[in-house]
Amino acid sequence: MEILTGNELISGATVYLDRSGNWSTDLQAARLFSTDEAAERDAALGASRASGRIISLDIEEISQEGSEIVPRRLRERIRAAGPTAPLSLNGRAYERQHLGDDGHVSI
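Below the sequence we write its predicted structure tokens.
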């Protein structure tokens, strides 16, 4: 089984293509593609590349442990767990800024 993963252009957040065709930060919401669905996976990959909103797109092999999605590569397991350094400065926590529905991010 495989999933599609990438990074949001603005925030850099790790995202996964979900069952609805949207990008989510929740690995467990990722759409699973079987080997028989390679054409659908490649079409979704192409459409995502064309949008320009998601970068570093990749096809990632996964295994399932019960109902849990587990990436096979250590690199992807680390990406799924979130930043390895805190998102804070001088004791103040910061949230990542995500693209809104209209694609606008204030700077």
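The mean pLDDT is 86.
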